[in-house]
Amino acid sequence: xxxxxxxxxxxxxxxxxxxxxxxxxxxxxxxxxxxxxxxxxxxxxxxxxxxxxxxxxxxxxxxxxxxxxxxxxxxxxxxxxxxxxxxxxxxxxxxxxxxxxxxxxxxxxxxxxxxxxxxxxxxxxxxxxxxxxxxxxxxxxxxxxxxxxxxxxxxxxxxxxxxxxxxxxxxxxxxxxxxxxxxxxxxxxxxxxxxxxxxxxxxxxxxxxxxxxxxxxxxxxxxxxxxxxxxxxxxxxxxxxxxxxxxxxxxxxxxxxxxxxx
Length: 262
Fold this sequence. Notes:
Layout: H1 4-36, H2 44-71, H3 81-97, H4 102-117, H5 123-140, H6 149-178, H7 184-219, H8 228-254
Helix pairs in contact: 1-2, 3-4, 5-6, 5-7, 6-7
Transmembrane segments: 21-41, 47-65
Protein name: 5-bromo-4-chloroindolyl phosphate hydrolysis protein
Keywords: Membrane, Transmembrane, Transmembrane helix
């Protein structure tokens, strides 16, 4: 969607073009009426020409009045470049999300941006472990229903919290590199505490994913939930073997018996 300033100039341009079109039309109809109207009086066709010319002149005048009134309004201020860029980004994201593969593309782009932002920091390894675990959980999440469904919600909340913690840990580490010597011990202690918390949280998240995978494996155990597709394929195979054997027997019965030659 265009901003207020752009919409203002677009409407101003439309009004200007409309006023010019009606002015040209009014001039043409007025000239035609002046030439085609006889001096000995007005007939019905002449009245039509004169009426059309007068209507066009009136509409042209109204268009010019509207144009002048709108042009007298104050022009909306221009958008800040950062705000304009944010709006353009939002429009691009909305357009991509409407595509069939849009959500997946955007998720991958966000993952790449986050991974690139943490590159070279001590939180990068924990973030990579968290990302692998989150992708694994996303693959089995549709099967986590019933009693296991609350675990999916807890995992989503933990994932957001741990990613935010990774960003904070990386931010403190970058600040530690630029801090003056007297402030470094305090920042280093804070960084160690954040990193320990991140590693502990990622380890717990991986444990949750392992438990979820175990739940799915037990829920789909062959003794509990047999796959019916294999059984159907075996039945179809036996049926085809039986049909082939029957056709072979029919062929054997239909063939004439040959008498041995002496």
